[in-house]
Design goal:
Blueprint: E1 7-8, E2 14-18, H1 49-66, E3 70-76, H2 85-101, E4 105-112, H3 119-127, E5 130-135, H4 140-144, H5 159-169, E6 178-184, H6 192-200, E7 206-210, H7 227-241, E8 247-248, H8 249-260, E9 276-279, E10 284-286, E11 300-304, H9 310-314, E12 321-322, H10 329-332, H11 337-340, H12 362-377
Parallel strand pairs: 2-3, 2-9, 3-4, 4-5, 5-6, 6-7, 7-8
Antiparallel strand pairs: 1-12, 9-10, 10-11
Helix pairs in contact: 1-2, 6-7, 7-12, 8-12
The structure holds iron/sulfur cluster (SF4) (2 copies).
């Protein structure tokens, strides 16, 4: 498996489990409800017990066969905490048992919108060793532009509720559960330094920046204008100037790839595929939530936990392929390709040429990579810099 060739995954080591398929928020950029896919409408709200049991079995058999040293089981939604403490606790314990018995270390995380974090929930998560990543888009102004309650609900913006949840998570008793913050970049949300500082104020172990999901046919507003790139350059400078207390996988990955040619731990860049698979609440298997931006059903692999083992899923048509040879000619000939990797797969899609395009965020990615490489080249970053190991971050949406 080389970055020069086409890369097909041989095994998964991250299982993204849609434990609950609905949400108590209605974010306007939501990758589940606001893109092209409508499959969520037909799915059970909470993953039924029969699906959970079969899934745990499938994970166990896959881990036994491939022997990864560590496996992540990430609880997603919708809002996964809506599944309730009994389902979360029971599923997590069973998944941990299956992974451990198969010979790997199990890492359990939940990616939450943070509005339902209270002491009872955190005690459940603590008891079961489940870490928490929280979605936060910065200060109140930035966050509440997009992350709002459903129309007609008594709640408008969700910033105050998320802040209350984070205040609990930051207490010494729960602090070890804090996996990090996930921030969707909006160049119109205000000064990047203000947004970055609002995230850093929570003292997260990691901050993950992501770009709104979109394609060439249905791009996010301002995608490709360079506005996202300029915003991220300024956020990078703020991160560096303020001492890099939190890990930022996007920035660290660009630095490490530029310096060492190391693999990326950010979903936004890199030539090697994330070894992740998504299991919907009805047991259907999806490649990645970001493909919901492409077309109705585009994310679906075509199998379920009842019909397919995870090994069988890897041989289905449509399994992600990465590496330079899998990219379009523009990207193959691009001097930044070894770092950029043409970005997230969904961001490349267009009606005429399928995935054979550069990223719709090409200009933004090249700006950011160029900015960081220019800083590296100017000798401004002489401090020892660790290669990213893919740990310590909030889980990114898959
Ligand atoms: S919290 Fe997440 S799942 Fe819920 S509406 Fe917002 S983006 Fe969608
Ligand atoms: S998306 Fe743009 S910057 Fe990235 S590899 Fe392709 S051409 Fe280069």
């Amino acid at each position: 498996m080389t970055p020069e060739g086409r890369v097909r995954l041989r095994a998964f080591d991250q299982f993204v489990v849609k434990l609950h398929s609905r949400c108590n928020l209605a974010c306007d950029y939501c990758y589940v409800y606001e893109l092209r896919d409508t499959g969520w409408r037909e799915r059970p709200r909470t993953m039924p017990e029969a699906v959970r049991e079969r899934l745990v079995q499938r994970v166990g058999e896959h881990v036994r066969r491939h022997r990864p040293s560590r496996v992540q089981v990430a609880l997603h939604g919708g809002e996964p905490l809506l599944a309730g403490p009994d389902v979360i606790a029971g599923f997590s314990a069973a998944a941990r048992r299956a992974v451990t018995l198969a010979g790997a270390e199990a890492e359990l995380v939940v990616q939450s919108n943070g509005t339902l974090l209270d002491e009872a929930v955190l005690e459940t998560l603590l008891r079961h060793g489940i870490r928490v990543g929280v979605s936060l888009d910065g200060d109140e102004r930035a966050h509440d532009r997009h992350r709002r309650g459903p129309a007609g609900s008594r709640h408008g913006g969700s910033h105050a509720r998320v802040s209350a949840g984070l205040a609990l998570l930051e207490r010494p008793r729960y602090r070890g559960l804090f996996a990090g913050l996930l921030c969707v970049v909006d160049p119109e949300a205000g000064d990047p330094a203000v947004v970055f500082d609002a995230l850093a104020d929570h003292d997260p172990p990691a901050i993950d920046f992501t770009l709104p999901y979109g394609t060439w046919d249905h791009p996010a507003p301002l995608a490709g204008s360079g506005a996202y790139g300029a915003w991220l350059c300024a956020a990078f400078d703020r991160w560096w100037q303020t001492g890099r207390a939190a890990r930022v996988r996007l920035f660290e990955s660009i630095m490490a790839q530029s310096l060492f040619g190391a693999g990326s731990s950010s979903e936004l860049i890199g030539l090697l595929p994330a070894a992740a698979v998504v299991i919907e609440s009805d047991g259907a298997i999806s490649w990645s939530g970001s493909l919901n931006a492409v077309a109705d059903g585009a994310a679906h692999a075509g199998g379920t936990v009842f019909s397919h083992s995870f090994d069988a899923v890897l041989s289905l048509p449509g399994a992600p392929e990465h590496g330079v040879a899998a990219l379009c000619r523009t990207c193959r000939e691009c001097p930044l390709v070894s770092v950029c990797g043409a970005g997230l797969r969904a961001h490349r899609h267009g009606r005429r040429r399928g995935f054979a395009n550069p990223s719709v965020y090409c200009r933004d990615l090249s700006l950011l990579i160029g900015h960081i490489q220019q800083k590296l080249g100017s000798g401004g970053f002489s401090a020892a810099f660790p290669e990213p190991d893919g740990t310590g971050g909030a889980d990114q949406r898959r």
